[in-house]
Amino acid sequence: MGLMKSLFRLGQHQLFFLNVLCLLLGAGIIIADICGLISLSLLAGLGGLSVFLLALSGVCAARESVFFFAPVTALFFLLGFLRYECALGEPDYSRLAGEQVKLAGVVEESPEVGVVNGKPRRRFVLRVTESSNLSAGGQLYVSEIMKQPDGEFSPLEIGDRVKVFGKLRAIRGYGNPGRIDTVRQAKSRGISGRVTAVTLTVSRSAEDELSGWMHLRRQMVRLREHYSRSLGETMPDRDRAAVMAMLFGGYGDLDPGLVESFTLTGIVHILSVSGSHMALLAGIVLWLGEMLRLKRRVIFAGLTGVVLLYSLLSGLIPPVVRSGLMAIAAFGAFVWGRGDSRDGGRLLVILAAALLIYEPRWLYDISFQLSFLATAGLIYIAPEVTALLTDRGLPRWLAMGLAVTFGANISTLPVIAWYFNQFSLSSFAANLLIVPLVDFIIAVTLLGGIAGLILPPLMKLTFVTAGLTMGAVRELSALLAGMPFGNIYLPTLSLPMTVGYYSLLCLLLWKKSRSFMAEGILQGLDWAGKYIQGRRLLPTALGIVLSIGGLLWAFSPERNITSVHFIDVGQGNAALVVTPRRQAFLIDTGGTIDSNFDIGARVVVPYLKHYGVQPEDLTHIFLTHAHADHAGGAGAVWRWQRSAGAVPARLITAGEGRDAYFSAMYLSGSEREAIDMTAPVPGTVYDIDGVKAEVMDTAVPVGNADGKSGRGNEYSMVLKVTAGDISFLFTGDLPAAGEERLLTKYGEGNKRTEALKASVLQVAHHGSHSSSGESFLRRVSPAAAVISAGFQNSFGHPHKTVLDRLTAQGCQILRTDLDGAVVFHTDGKRLTVETFY
Fold first, then answer.
1. Under 8 Å between Cβ of 689 and 579
2. Which of 36, 229, 322, 829 has the most CB atoms around its CB within 10 Å?
3. At what angle do helices 396-419 and 382-391 cross, to 10 degrees?
4. Is residue 445 within 8 Å of 247, Cβ to Cβ?
């Protein structure tokens, strides 16, 4: 009772106090993430302190002491810290990465089948039950590659038992800022490693051998597959894939054009199960309940059952579970609460805290961040905007539609800027025109599937209707995506600016603050009017201009700084140079022979956006040679510039022939004709905003740019980038023979004996032992060496011999496979470096 009285004494400040507790819980999680796994003795000590704080909170609450809040706030911080530490202590198979494992387990999720490098691949989640060197209970991704393109996989379902032999590898994404953290996402689901099967044996589990829970999940998967087959009988395959994504989530076989249109119009979230799906279900259940005049508690029970069933049908993945819980909790507040924004706010923060206590790594999950910030926008911002618009004569349905979109976008703006760097103005029209059609498709398809169990012709009729509506959605989304100024660029906000943004937003939403601010503005205008009337117009205008200029100067990037970025593109090379006046050029663009994942579009272009490089800022792309892991991403970068209406960057190549580069870049015939490509002679210098890029060497004869010569590492262009006294030497995949040629060319007696010396060396061929000879390293004499290589790559890069040679030179070794993106900053005199990890 004391605790309840203490909370009750907060009165209207309850919501503020709950938000503080949730923020402290999150702060504890972040500090634990920074500290890493701590010792058991320290963990036990902090646990004892938590027990003491809990007891102290109880005593203070019983005595209704004013000091009640101090131990409670400290307790929530410790709770976040300790809960994250416990999560770090769960089975982590990545610590044994590189070992051969033989294990047995149970299939936990429905297998996904796709094509990788032209070969069929099946991937599923396996819960380990037996292993010679792994603890039981954890989960792994298991991939099975079909060696024959026309072969078929053996049947496999949830609950089947599998024996696997293969090499264990850690899960790893690309270590660049603004990327979705795939490692944390997997670990929050208990998945901490991956195995590509060398041998795999399936033991099918009969229905009577499954537990009730596993049997239910298998039936849900079969029902989902039944939906997919039935939809495929009534509509084109691309529409079937889109409708299945709208119903149950997943981007597996979606049309890339549709995904791009939905992304540009700001409604890509409807291609995965989200809060909007649950809101639609709630609306249908509520409408049916009102039609049947059922009590609200009965409607709530029905809604709970429907949401749980739909979550099961969608696979029970974390975003679905979170959305389902939010829908149940929100409707519960509507049934038993007052239904105002304070009830919604309390519910939101309590649910956020409960979910973070359950799985603290969700704090870093983009879907968690977006769903809760968007919900906060709907609770706090949308009602205010709706009232404002209706007061100005807009119909309520239109005002609500605009307010919902505005509230969700404003509340998630910094997160959108961090991950996507774009804001969709066309989302307002899309939410009014397209989202209702999508809601209709979801409702009709779900109800039609159920009705089809009784009347099969009715199911076909509803599915045909859904297919026709899907055609309209496709055309509308493409039309809105092509609107001029439909998307605007959003710069990435720094941490202080993000804190300032949300602080200002909270002040604007606080009614007392708004009244104070309005009064202050009116008084300021009144004072300004009197001041100007006193013939002080010029000093007033000058003061305003100087104030605005000072703020812009304070928040502008550091001046006269050149930045050189070594981007993590996996097993490949890509570097970005940004000059003091924001001009930029690339040296290699990464890439892959797997056309299903375009490194240029999915890694390099987002990296450029994150650092504020606009399409018109990129003037040159230097490609050291025509191998796909160096030149493959250039096509996507070129298309990005062209689609934005900018003049595409000039391609500077080693001269292996246009066809060799076109093949690596996946360019069509018309695109090839529009490419500006040149192969310079050694000694050519490009001056880009004061930063010099000099072609030191290329093995291809002059005038071979249009030829069809062979291609290989020996053709690698060597490029030296200089900013003041600081220089960077890029060597592509140059082999030892090429290094010897350089040593001879710039050897004793040459006027430019010191030309090979550089502050930073991009180590050739990802650290292969076939490059980076001792003589070459001594001549370059770098202070730092950067190795671009894929995490746990199959080539063994970088080789130990190369690492030993670099260590002997006394230079700092930086690796994209371990450090993520490596960024150097220089003013031409001093050099600093930062890494992503």
1. yes
2. 322
3. 140
4. yes
**Tokens found for residue 109:** 């999720």
Q: H/E element holding 762?
A: strand 760-762
Find how far residue 47's CA is from the centre of its chain. Answer: 34
DSSP states of 730-741 as a string?
A: E-TT--HHHHHH
Which of 832, 781, 772, 779 lies closest to 802, judged by CA? 772
Over range 211-216, report the average pLDDT.
Answer: 84
36-44, long-range: CB < 8 A, 24+ apart: 36/88, 37/85, 37/88, 37/89, 38/85, 43/82, 43/85
Distance CA 422, CA 802 (A): 42
Alpha-carbon dihedral 34, 39, 44, 46, rounded to 10 degrees: -30
pLDDT tens by residue, 680-700: 888 899 999 999 999 998 865
Phi first, then psi: what are they for 746, rounded to 5°?
A: -115, 40
Token pair of 814 as six digits = 């930086």
Residue 4 is predicted with a pLDDT of: 47
Cα separation of 181 and 136, whole Å?
25
705 — pLDDT class (breaks 50, 70, 90): very low
What pLDDT does 708 receive?
43
Q: Please report how the helices 427-451 and 456-481 are oriented relative to each other, as an axis angle in degrees rounded to 10.
A: 170
Give the model's confidence band at 802: pLDDT under 50 very low, under 70 low, under 90 confident, else very high.
very high
Kindly report, residue by residue over 126-163, the tens digit of the pLDDT. Answer: 999 988 777 878 899 999 988 776 778 888 988 999 99
